[in-house]
Design brief:
alpha/beta, TIM Barrel, eight-stranded parallel β-barrel, two-stranded antiparallel sheet, 13 helices, 14% strand
């Protein structure tokens, strides 16, 4: 950027006398001939695109994985492996294998072969990792949701050994115990991340909820504990009540672009302040959503709901839209775009904090009272 252009921008001008640079529309016919570089780094891994398919039904199906790869997805996060399901499988196998053991002294162990090392859920998931590696050109990230500290470490090691390029820890915990304080929950999570990071040898991402009391500080502690990346945010599915049966019932509503605001704010706040990659998820539906998150400071953007609505080919739609937007404004790479509107770079850093709350309410009231 020339000195005159920089001074013009500092004075509030538009830099018309300077050569076009990133963030400025280039007149038709003068667009750069070099293709836009969409490559990025996440968890220390090279990705051809910042658009990632997050954990969901699509990433657990081989045909869908092929379609996502053909559409140019940067990476895939496989569906979460839940410890409860694995424990349930083990218990079912144990019950089946010992059936009838008390009925005949000649069959003290039941009537089926010994299945000590059998776990259908884990075996099936490990095979999915290996198959996905043969299909997807970008990184294959496994996901795990554990309950016990031993379970987190045990299954994370299996995922790494099966060939996962990285592991996402899906930390889905509702702190409902009135006798357990926030500090204890934080410490338990930090010990978990440290244990898994030391045991696996592959990059670890932590998928967080937005409900930590001091998220910026906790994010820094997670990075210090060994987290190579943070996924913002885990979308908690809230329960409902079935009025016919008077029972608690699950209720799933796909996200929309309005939910983008929360990860956008925290990507902007954490960019450049935490030594970890930032992945933004929830509300990523259009190419404009992707661009906003990259400008805020995200390294990658993750989508599930949009893929469920539009199919795997939607990845190509997002990619084309991002490329066209960047090209029209003179951005040649994601590196130039990333963090350009983060809290560290905007003129009014408070806009991402309390000032945004006040301004939003004031403007809405002014519109209403006209």
């Amino acid at each position: 950027m020339s000195d005159r252009f920089a001074q013009s921008m500092a004075d509030g001008g538009d830099g018309e006398d300077a050569p076009p640079g990133p963030g400025h529309v280039i007149p038709s016919g003068l667009a750069p001939t070099a293709p836009v570089d969409l490559s990025t780094r996440y968890l220390g891994l090279e990705l051809a695109s910042p658009i990632v398919a997050s954990a969901g039904p699509f990433t657990g199906d081989l045909a869908s994985l092929k379609a996502l790869d053909a559409a140019g997805v940067g990476a895939v996060v496989l569906p979460s492996l839940f410890e409860e399901q694995l424990v349930h499988d083990d218990e079912q196998v144990e019950r089946f294998s010992t059936y009838g053991s008390d009925a005949n002294p000649e069959a003290p162990s039941g009537y089926v072969p010994n299945l000590d090392h059998y776990n259908e859920g884990a075996v099936r998931y490990l095979k999915l990792i290996r198959d996905a590696q043969q299909i997807v050109r970008g990184p294959v990230i496994a996901s795990i949701n554990g309950v016990t500290s031993g379970g987190w470490v045990r299954y994370a090691k299996l995922l790494a050994e099966a060939g996962a390029d990285a592991i996402e820890l899906n930390v889905y915990r509702v702190a409902a115990d009135a006798e357990v304080g926030g500090r204890q929950v934080e410490q338990e999570t930090l010990r978990l991340v440290e244990s898994v990071a030391q045991a696996t040898g592959v990059p670890i991402a932590v998928k967080l909820s937005p409900h930590w009391s001091a998220l910026a500080s906790f994010a820094t502690q997670l990075a210090d504990a060994g987290a190579a990346g943070l996924v913002l945010f885990n979308r908690f599915y809230q329960p409902d009540i079935n009025l016919e049966t008077l029972s608690v019932a699950p209720h799933l509503v796909l996200s929309n672009s309005d939910e983008l605001r929360l990860p956008l704010r925290w990507c902007a706040i954490l960019h450049g302040r935490v030594d970890a990659s930032l992945a933004a998820t929830t509300g990523v539906h259009t190419h404009l959503d992707v661009i906003k998150l990259l400008l805020a400071g995200a390294d990658v953007t993750m989508s599930t709901s949009a893929l469920l609505r539009h199919g795997p080919d939607h990845v190509a739609t997002l990619t084309d839209g991002v490329t066209e937007w960047m090209d029209a404004r003179g951005y040649s790479s994601v590196d130039e775009l990333r963090g350009a509107v983060s809290q560290r770079t905007v003129r009014d850093p408070a806009a991402f904090e309390r000032a945004n709350y006040l301004e939003t309410l004031t403007k809405y009231a002014s519109t209403f009272l006209r």
